[in-house]
Design brief:
The protein has 50 residues and is mostly loops. The chain is built from one helix and no strands.
Length: 50
Amino acid sequence: MERALVPLANYGITLDKLKQGPVRNPVAPDVPWQDGVLKLPAVNLNFIPS
């Protein structure tokens, strides 16, 4: 397990730190809707019955 964490040691993530609780992946991209709002362009759709 410790060998798998070697690349994350540069970010300060150790096995002991993981045992304390969850740690965010430092190389993961930020979520664009982390504030709970997904910003999409306003689009009007008109449905025409067939």
